[in-house]
Amino acid sequence: MSRPKALVAWSSGKDSAWSLHEVLRAGELEVVGLLTTVTSEFGRVSMHAVREALLDAQAAALGLPCRKVRIPWPCPNDAYEREMAAAVAEARAAGVTRIVFGDLFLADIRAYREERLAGTGVAPVFPLWGRETALLAREMIAGGLVATLTCVDPRRLDRALAGRPFDAALLAALPAGVDPCGENGEFHTFVSAGPMFRAPLDVVGGEVVEREGFVFADVLPRPEAG
């Protein structure tokens, strides 16, 4: 009996990466690709602000094609929903019946995803749902996941943490009330290595800028020597 075909809702960050890892480890789904929203005006992954070239590098290192859902900036919700609905319909036509999400505990986000997929023939899967996030964060790091903070909400977290590695030292530095996985929007990440990758990506930190109330740290491919 064939396994259900699945896409992973890929943010370029740690939670979607670890969701992929868990699904691959369980072996119950056939992961056939990634699904990522890219802000057209900037050529970057939405909210995580990761360059499209690095998204492409991640997909290559994962050995999976990436379906990019291009959205405008600013993006009205109806435009987002229209583009996502088209992508889901396209995936369903190609035989996909599952989309894997990296959500951890925000019930309203989960309910929204379930509502939008209802009746499409594609069901959501939440492999990390309900996990204790302090333990999950440590499990990711111990499991070899390498990630960088690319977006920080300075209302919740020191802006100086933008560009920092997601590691044990960062977890120890997080103030009380900040979720260790940043699930409340405190921070977002870019994953450059981990057990889900065939090979690590060689990246370096770039410029740090503040825009629209958030602090963004750029990540760049390491320049070739010579």
In words, what does this structure look like?
With 226 residues, the protein is an alpha/beta fold. It has two domains: 5-125, Rossmann fold (3-Layer(aba) Sandwich), CATH 3.40.50; 133-221, no CATH class. It has helices spanning 14-26, 52-62, 77-93, 107-117, 133-142, 168-173; strands at residues 5-9, 30-39, 44-45, 66-71, 96-100, 123-125, 146-152, 187-193, 203-211, 214-221. The radius of gyration is 17 Å and the shape is globular. The N and C termini lie far apart (52 Å). The mean pLDDT is 94.
Shape: globular
Spans of at least 5 consecutive residues with low confidence: none
Percentage of residues assigned to helices: 25-40%
- Would you identify the CATH architecture of the largest domain? 3-Layer(aba) Sandwich
Radius of gyration: 17 Å
Q: What is the typical, i.e. mean, pLDDT?
A: 94
Q: What series of H and E elements makes up the topology?
A: EHEEHEHEHEHEHEEE
Kindly name the structural category: alpha/beta
Return the CATH topology of the largest domain: Rossmann fold
Largest sheet: 6 strands, mixed
Taken as a percent bin, the fraction of beta residues is 25-35%
Instruction: Give me the number of helical elements.
Output: 6
- Total number of β-strand segments? 10
Head-to-tail CA distance between termini: 52 Å
The count of domains is 2
Instruction: Say which CATH homologous superfamily of the largest domain is assigned.
Output: HUPs
CATH class term of the largest domain? Alpha Beta
